[in-house]
Amino acid sequence: MRQCLTSPEGGYYTHQREGRDQFGQKGDFITSPEISQIFGELLGIWLVAEWMGQGRMNHGVEIIEMGPGRGTLMDDMLRTISRFKDLASSVENVFLVEASPSLRNAQKQLLCGEKPLEETEIGFQCMSKHFDLPITWCEDLRFVPNTLSKTPFIVAHEFFDALPIHAFQSVPPSPSTAQTITTPTGPISLNNPKSQPQSHQWRELLVNSASPPTTSPPPGKDPPPEFELTLSKSSTPPSLLLPTLSPRYRALLSTSGATIEISSESQSYAADFAQRIGGSSSKSPSPTSSQPDSPLDKQPIKPHPSGAALILDYGPQSTVPTSTLRGIRSHALCSPFIFPGLVDLSADVDFTSLADAALGASEGVEVHGPVEQGDWLLQMGARERAEMICKELDRTGGDEGATKEMAKKRIRGSVERLMSKVPGKGMGGMYKVLAIVPERGGRRPMGFGGGLGA
Fold it and tell me: Under 8 Å CB-to-CB from 329, ≥6 apart: which residues?
């Protein structure tokens, strides 16, 4: 997934192709911020509510967005935040975590206009068009400074579904297995192998070249996949470790043929979010770090947990994702193994896994959700905001009555599309929302059953 999506040489997001846009009606998919400005406005309002509930700090606020797409979401959020002068003046920096140079340029154009883009030690920086605020682009979250005195508000919308996964399948015991393990450098024989355990084992599903097709596809049909998933003949290092780390996975081991998907990278990001908000846990180091001497591993518990993270994506509320790897092309599902670099790839997000990773990484946070996007938008006042915009249209002149009615119908219809839970017609049930906030005795955030903070 990483190679196909973000490789500098032909990656889906990182390689710019003239006349091609991944987003919107002419692209492969359309996201919630592109459907209605109300989506981004309500995320901005949620951030305002959290800032108020945490004491209205007057400095040190940072806003971080993971995978900002074309920048539409951040543009709507900043426009909303700019109306709250005390909060706007407390924001010191906006960080956009973006691996694609072409998308970074599109984001810069929308958020900064013609203002110059300057290279810095950690990425690129430009001043926002909304208010006197620097926007900094970093290729990875590791380059975004993690300072205990700062208050980070993190947004991850349709970010986790694009992160790489491992897929495993439970197989019954076999006397011919467990003599070797498969590694990236080839099979390795086990030294003094123990007797074969008479129990199920997890085997990894690996990407392999598919057999050449014997016939040509019919005109207008996709070609046969170039690759396919194959079950490893022996254990791999990930299969010996990852499925053992959660009782949710262990409970499925005894079911022959059970398939699970695990994104260790997603868990690392969730842990990083939690540590930025609540400080590192005394129980374990940061899983984001690949270096033993990383500053994150030595991060003390944050004296005053602050900030929040809001994750919006699609996936089951509590079950383990299984066989969800998919390709998306021209607003339709397709095989993930055709046209590498030209097809978007995604997999369902395991929200329970993200929550567990966050709570395990920091003792200073609590997690709320996931709740369905339709319910979250309802509590945030999406329909009321739509009616406000419609009334503003009525008060303005210039358009004919029929044109105004069409505009109002479009505004209301866009909100209903975001909120409807009807499969195939709306996004309100498929998409979920999860919040990571400072530990506060279970007081619910806005949109999760709570109200506006004091």
Answer: 28, 339, 342, 343, 344
The pTM assigned to this predicted structure is 0.86
Convert the pLDDT of each residue in 323-344 to its tens digit: 899 987 877 778 888 888 788 8
Is residue 211 a contact partner of residue 193, using CB atoms and an 8 Å limit? Answer: no
* 372-390 tens-digit pLDDT: 999 999 999 999 999 999 9
| Token pair for 399 | 């358009």
**């694009």: which residue's tokens?**
162
